[in-house]
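Reviewer 2 asked us to include a model.

Predict the structure of this chain.
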Amino acid sequence: MENEKQYLFDNPRNVKRLLNCFYVICAILVVLDFVIHRHIVHSWENLWAFYPIYGFVGCVVLVLVATWMRTFLMRDEDYYDPNGSGAEGGAHDVDA
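Predicted model (structure tokens):
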């Protein structure tokens, strides 16, 4: 197992560095929210943390809609192979 390929995020230090970068970027964006003037169209856009709350609610709604859609889009486990023949003896086997 010594010669296994190491990927970038296999090292916990790299994951910690990436998370720290995300935290710093989030802090900078929060500070910039107080400094940068936004051209708002609706009055509720002027509320503090409107866009993060809007994004969070949008993601939650997306997950809930996807969960609901799964109820009628889901297929049986053997949908593409109803006979259960698998790879051993399917219609695609060619004897040459």
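The first helix runs from residue 12 to 35. Residues 15 and 21 are 10 Å apart (CA to CA). We have added this to the supplementary material.
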